[in-house]
Amino acid sequence: MTPPYCLYVEDDENDALLAAYEFQRATPLHMVIQSTGRQALDFLQTIERPPVFILVDLGLPLMSGVQLIYELRHNDFTARVPLFILTGREDDEQVLGALGADAYLVKPFKVPKLQMKLGMLGLSGLLIGNDP
Fold it and tell me: What is the pTM of this model?
């Protein structure tokens, strides 16, 4: 059985490594990182359970974050999974509804901010961590 995990789709290796480090310190959840939308969709076809939540960078290569979100929202396996847009801009809140995302985070995101957003979705406690 697949243990609980979150899926992070990010093409910038530095952003991904920083997030993985911070995430590992703050949560017992495993973070699966995929660098393209296609890799993320392929990965999701190989597992038994959907992620607890998904983080998607909008600026992905080959398949944009917008296209990936569309695919995730139109797939029965991931349609109801909380989905966060990751962006470098502070003004992307307007795109949330249009894309079907639940919330957005500005990169590089901080785990406390992610925890706050999860709490707003009724998922507080997911990131109770090892370090304050």
Answer: 0.84
Q: Cβ distance 7 to 51 under 8 Å?
A: yes
**Residue 122: left (phi > 0), alpha (psi -120 to 50), or beta?**
left
Domain annotation covers residue 128: no
Query: Is residue 127 assigned to a domain?
Result: no
Q: Are 78 and 72 in contact (CB under 8 A)?
A: yes
Whether 44 is in a domain gets the answer yes
Evaluate whether residue 79 is within a structural domain: yes
CATH number for the domain spanning 42: value is 3.40.50.2300
Query: pLDDT value at position 18?
Result: 85
Q: In the predicted model, is pLDDT for residue 32 greater than 70?
A: yes
Contacts of 4 by beta carbon, 8 Å cutoff, 6+ apart? 29, 30, 52
- The neighbour count for residue 13, using CB atoms within 10 Å, is 10
